[in-house]
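Let us walk through a complete example step by step. Step one is to write down the protein sequence. Step two is to encode the small molecule, flavin-adenine dinucleotide, as a SMILES string so that its atoms and bonds are unambiguous. Step three, shown after the inputs, is the structure prediction itself.
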Amino acid sequence: MKSQILDSQTAERSQRFKGEVLLNVEIANIERSLDGVKIERSPGEIQEFDKVVFATPPDQVMAPLADPTDAEIKRFSGWKANYATTTIHTDTSMYGNHHIHHPSEFDFFQIDTRWGYNSYLNQLCDISSSQDYFLSFQLEKMIDPVRIIHTQEHHTPLYTTESFRYRDEVLATNGENNTYYAGAYLGDSLHEGAIASAFRVVQLIGSPSALSISGFNGKNTNTLRLAKA
Ligand SMILES: Cc1cc2nc3c(=O)[nH]c(=O)nc-3n(C[C@H](O)[C@H](O)[C@H](O)COP(=O)(O)OP(=O)(O)OC[C@H]3O[C@@H](n4cnc5c(N)ncnc54)[C@H](O)[C@@H]3O)c2cc1C
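Step three: the predicted structure of the complex.
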């Protein structure tokens, strides 16, 4: 099987994979047949594969599919994008304003009609520095702009009743049309759900890696190791 990885955050991890690894590639078209999958990268440049795995947010599935079935259109059309912004900063003023002398790992604050949190990175990530570092979510109004180090936008699935309606059907038909899906949206929407869904795909494809995860019970992902194929 020829293999490629087409996502932007796998540069370091890709060292462990066999085959050619391509990053930050724009996919024009994905065409499936009984024999396999044809992926068109740029106009005219077509490569053939046995299978395709979508590890993207679910709202990204439909666009590159040249030949979506009615069932696929039904299962994925309800998914929309949701954008969340986080901020890395060094501002401690919100603690002083609430007479809190020391941050804890996660501190929640109420602003107007919504809440946000600060996670204390020195404690959470074991950073030994006299400078306090925080990752905050929805606290932009409380943070002095000059104390902001980085702002990150995250593309996540928008979880609604409509988007969830066919989620179990995606799970039940995973692998149909030589097409597989992995992502937190197929589990608990958190890290564990994302990892568990990827393991399920590995098992469905029947990779040798599946042998080393056959004891996976979905509860202790920290102890799992993928075998080198
Ligand atoms: C602010 C925030 C805090 C969180 N905190 C926690 C926490 O404390 N604990 C926890 O368990 N979970 C947490 N989560 C949730 C957790 O991060 C996610 O559930 C998990 O990372 C999702 O993994 P995933 O593989 O499904 O998707 P992602 O990690 O989002 O991976 C999707 C990949 O698809 C790529 N991609 C997108 N579009 C395309 C495209 N068109 N073509 C090719 N590639 C594409 C993206 O670049 C990305 O690499 C948090 C999420 C956010 C946003």
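Step four is interpretation. Residues 6-9, 55-57, 60, 84, 86, 137, 154-156, 183-184, 189-191, 194 surround flavin-adenine dinucleotide (CB under 6 Å).
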